[in-house]
Amino acid sequence: MLCTIINNITRRDCEHMPQDFFGRIIYLLSRYGMSFFNGALQTMNIALVGTIFGCIIGFAVGVVQTIPVSKNDSLVKRILYSIVSFLLNAYVEIFRGTPMMVQAMFIYYGSSALFNINMSMMFAAYFIVSINTGAYMAETVRGGVLSIDPGQEEGAKAIGMTHVQTMIYVILPQALRNIMPQIGNNLIINIKDTCVLSIIGIVELFFASKGVAGTYYTYFEAFTITMVIYFILTFTCSRILRVFENRMDGPDSYDLATTDTLAYTSGMVRFPDPKNNKEDK
């Protein structure tokens, strides 16, 4: 009886649906605009939280992987570092080498079957995106740290800084600017890849779009709307992150700062503008 009522309602709605393409899009937005909106909010929520925690994991793993170990260190330290390094490398390779959809199924259902841990769907979504992002960020951070001139670390150690102090105050601030574009890339990737979490029941943008499309069998129109929403989300985030990158670059011209009054130099230091150099040539 209930199925008959639903079918009759759907049939009447289909009779009132416009026949042209843009008319159907407007019709779907007017009736299911909030479903698309709530799905987009859920997508951004998971992507932002997952990227933030993924970056924290990635920074921790990347820094540990760059800890210097020499033959002069104690045997215990070398063995312990080898074990930790092996485990971290295994984590990075496994989560970079398997699809997030498979990871979602394995973690969400496997945690219950193997360890009797019943995760909520939202906690599982945050956890899956975070550890997946952390694996990619670990390699990014490792490469960013290694890209810094070794003289920076040598100079820090020459004035008595420990490895941790050198990382926090000298290396990581410089490496952060170098890896900022990759952090933005990971956020954009996560916005798009959250759609795989629909396999464990997360009602994000893709899941909501499937429901709308299946109601009237308007898959082309519904996913056209979805594609535009995804593009707006990713394009907006990329522009915002570009502003942050420019802020981190700082001004092209600045005053020299020194505490030595005898060495104080007045005036400005200015980097040459690459555009002007090209025009001169």
TrEMBL record:
Pfam family, one: BPD_transp_1
GO molecular function, one term: transmembrane transporter activity
UniProt membrane topology term: Multi-pass membrane protein
GO cellular component labels: ATP-binding cassette (ABC) transporter complex
Chain coiled-coil ranges: none
Domain ABC transmembrane type-1: 40-241
SUPFAM superfamilies in the record: MetI-like
Keywords, in A-Z order: Amino-acid transport, Cell membrane, Membrane, Transmembrane, Transmembrane helix, Transport
Gene3D superfamilies documented for this protein: MetI-like
Residue ranges of the TM segments: 46-67, 79-95, 107-129, 219-241
Keyword Iron-sulfur on entry: no
Subcellular location, record wording: Cell membrane
Keyword Transmembrane helix: yes
One record GO biological process: amino acid transport
Family designation: Belongs to the binding-protein-dependent transport system permease family. HisMQ subfamily.
Protein name: ABC transmembrane type-1 domain-containing protein
